[in-house]
Amino acid sequence: MTKYEYMQLALDLAQKGLGHTAPNPMVGCIVVKDGRIVAQGYHEKYGGYHAERNALLHCEEDLTGAELYVTLEPCCHEGKTPPCTDIILERGIGSVYIGAMDPNPLVAGKGAQILKDHGVEVETGILEKECKELNEPFFQYISSGIPYVAMKYAMTMDGKIATYTGDSKWVTGEVARHHVHELRKRYSAIMVGIGTVLVDNPMLNCRIEEGVDPLRVICDSNLRIPLDSRIVATAKEVPTLVAYAEGNEEKEKQLAQAGVDLIRINEGGRVDFVKLMKKLGERGIDSALVEGGGTFHGTVLKSGLVKRIYCYMAPKLIGGKEAKSPVEGDGFSLMREAMEITDTQIIKLGEDICITGRVDRSA
Q1: How many CB atoms neighbour CB 167 within 10 A?
Q2: What pLDDT is recorded for position 341?
Q3: Please, which residues have CB within 8 angstroms of residue 71's CB and are 6 or more apart in sequence?
Q4: Which residue of the set 44, 52, 282, 351 is catalytic?
Q5: Is the dihedral of CA 270, 276, 279, 283 positive or negative?
Q6: C-alpha closest to that of 147 among 345, 51, 283, 267
Q7: Which residues of the chain are under the pLDDT cut of 50?
Q8: Nearest of 192, 204, 174, 151 to residue 296 by alpha carbon
Q9: CA–CA separation, 81 vs 104, rounded Å?
Q10: pTM for the full model?
């Protein structure tokens, strides 16, 4: 096998940590000696051992001169776990192949340099693009402290998210909806505006694995969320935060008693999205998936923080000039001002498709 094939195996391993490692990255590690894979491991959960240590601790063979493939630069500092560079040197690893360098200022090239200084052969940039894409939220959050924001919506082929009566169940089929729950597992928070709560009374949880529900964040400037909504009723089981600008003491008390975490951000009677994201970052939330309606999406896009779009499209036409579209607000006056989406991918999901890509702010 080539070094690229071994790194791909490490990437596949890293994916097993999805939904459990944030705000730490997903990392996979493969150890090879004499052409045999003798150990493997991945970062299983936040606070647990990193991939390299998990791999090496479970291997009793003599690893002198072995090759180690890891998707992210080994750490060299004492955190919740000991430095991975220590155990790599202790086990006599001869060569280390790194996918992507760690942007964490505590590491940032220092891990690779320590290994080199102790005679370990180090090669970087193996499947670097794929290794960085695996942890897009981590790379932004660790360097800026602001959560990585993605936006998701489902629409018909004529660009509608609901009929003119407001009916939206369901735009897409079961396969596409299952894919949405996989997204919810990937992101640390799921965010909607109060309009979605009032119209749809959603649960906003992840229904593919128990215990990995993202933090539910509701932007509710005037604290209109109903006390009998499913969000409030399940707030003690699923982490829930309501961001508001103006409310009343009695409603705040009732929501707190129901298990809702409240955060007040009043900017002219509205919740400022940028300030809210900074507050979430301070709480260790590294990423957020926005799943609101057209009005909320327009506001969020205007903030300039959205990095990725997931557009689910169903082969349906419903028409109606009053039917809602996925992004509203004032919009742009000229086509050349339009927000461009780059690095697009198309995923087939039953009869539906998902188009995803990065928001290009340089255009």
Answers
A1: 11
A2: 95
A3: 7, 10, 11, 14, 26, 27, 28, 29, 51, 99, 100, 127, 131, 134
A4: 52
A5: positive
A6: 283
A7: none
A8: 192
A9: 15
A10: 0.90
HSE, side-chain direction, 13 A CA sphere, residue 326:
20
Q: For the purposes of burial, counting CB atoms within 10 Å of the CB of 44, is it exposed (0-12), middle (13-18) or buried (19 or more)?
A: middle
Per-residue pLDDT at 362: 66
Residue 91 to residues 68, 78, 88, Cα–Cα distance (Å): 11, 18, 5
Task: For 201-226, write each residue's pLDDT tens digit.
Answer: 999 988 877 778 899 999 999 999 99
Is residue 277 within 8 Å of residue 305, measured between CB atoms? yes
Rounded to whole angstroms, how far apart are CA atoms 245 and 264?
5
Active-site residue flag, 67: no
| CA angle (149 as vertex; 144, 153 as ends), nearest 5 | 175
Torsion of CA 102, 103, 107, 113, to 10 degrees: 60
Contact by Cβ (8 Å): 137, 148 = yes
